[in-house]
Specification:
Elements: H1 8-17, E1 25-27, E2 33-36, H2 38-44, H3 48-51, H4 65-77, E3 83-90, E4 96-103
Antiparallel strand pairs: 1-2, 3-4
Length: about 110
């Protein structure tokens, strides 16, 4: 298995594979953000250091957290099966942006060399 999931090269390769997505976040199994794509950062006004290594749940609206937590657990139990959920994500400047999130466990993508 490819273990260097934090490397910039790995994130660039994965971002290329998923380039059809408008905003990209990579999470570990606990919901910690390991990578935030440029469209995500510019769209919500964040710098990478403001979100990477932080919990996704620091940015998800409190009323949406249970649904996203359940979706993450479901995704981890069904490799490769995408799950869509509406979620409100905190803007850097304040307020909430409603997004449609697609969550997918991508183990094959983590095995890139």
């Amino acid at each position: 298995m490819y273990n260097d999931y934090k490397s910039p090269h790995h994130h660039q390769q994965l971002a290329k594979q998923l380039s059809g997505l408008e905003m990209l976040l990579l999470l570990d199994e606990t919901g910690r953000i390991t990578f935030a794509g440029p469209s995500f950062l510019s769209g919500l006004g964040y710098q990478a250091e403001e979100v990477v290594e932080h919990s996704l749940f620091d940015y998800v609206h409190p009323e949406d957290q249970a649904a996203i937590q359940t979706a993450l657990k479901l995704v981890l139990s069904q490799t490769g099966v995408p799950i869509r959920r509406d979620v409100r994500f905190r803007w850097q400047a304040g307020g909430w942006l409603e997004l449609e999130a697609t969550l997918t466990d991508l183990p094959a993508a983590t095995q890139m060399g």
